[in-house]
Amino acid sequence: MDNARNLAPGTPPEEIPQSNWPASPHAPPPSRLNRALPIILQGSSWVVVEKPSGLLSVPGRAPNQHDCVRLRVQEMFPSLTALTVHRLDWETSGVIIVALSESAHRDLNQQFERRRISKMYTAIVSGLCPHTSGIIRLPIAKDWPNRPRQKVDNAEGKPTETHYRVIDSGPGWSRIEFMPITGRTHQIRVHAAHPEGLHAPILGDALYGDPASAPRLMLHATSIAFRDPETGLLVEARSSPPF
């Protein structure tokens, strides 16, 4: 992860060293000495850690899918109870909040439900965007025959909204900041790829784009801002993208 931070902004995906690629989900689990996640911010009842690409946020159903952010945070704080507040996709890296008490879990969940938590993501997408900024509103629903894909569905989809801003570009790619107002599954990925959105899939997206276009999904949760459940103070955690 430290090596990843030394990469210059705008580094082409093909030049990212393999040390920054996510491990295969079928690889042997790492030793417990390497399981602790970097702590970005910590309060008395919560912690913000940095999730690497290639790690689940919560346990999966299969026996080989038990390793996850929640389990590792529980190992880091064995005297407390780690509780999931929100999730990042397996392929997505970046900041994620984990509650360390029942009361903090309730408070943070309420903040999410009332849309009082702001999140920012950085992604590299395929192609050049015609606009430097904008708002994407597309109704999203589960694509049941093609799970875990989501789809734009004007009849059955739930409302979604994502703000975006182009911050850099090069031959065949654009670096974009996304701020999702709603929090549907794969929202940013669908909004980037869909013809009524940016029509520019995130590089490395195996579900909505070309998985061979980058060594990993080029999507990173760069910041999250929320109120400390204990003090009420506004706190913000930031993480630089590893690409």
Describe the protein's architecture and organization.
The protein has one domain: Pseudouridine synthase (2-Layer Sandwich), CATH 3.30.2350. Helices cover 13% and strands 28% of the residues. The protein is built from four helices and twelve strands, in the order αββαββαββββββαββ. It has helices at residues 2-5, 69-76, 102-113, 187-193; strands spanning 39-42, 46-51, 83-84, 93-99, 118-126, 133-136, 140-142, 150-152, 162-170, 173-180, 219-227, 234-238.
Please name the defining characteristics of this protein:
single chain, alpha+beta, Pseudouridine synthase, ten-stranded mixed sheet, 4 helices, disordered N terminus
CATH architecture assignment name: 2-Layer Sandwich
- Largest β-sheet summary: 10 strands, mixed
Helices and strands, in N-to-C order?
A: HEEHEEHEEEEEEHEE
CATH superfamily: Pseudouridine synthase
Structural class: alpha+beta
Tally of distinct domains: 1
The fraction of residues in strands falls at 25-35%
Poorly predicted tracts of residues: 1-10, 16-31
CA distance, first residue to last residue: 10 Å
What helical percentage do the residues reach?
10-25%
Q: What is the top-level CATH class?
A: Alpha Beta
CATH topology type: Pseudouridine synthase
Radius of gyration, in angstroms, nearest whole number: 18 Å
Average pLDDT score: 90
Number of strands: 12
Number of helices: 4
**Overall morphology:** globular
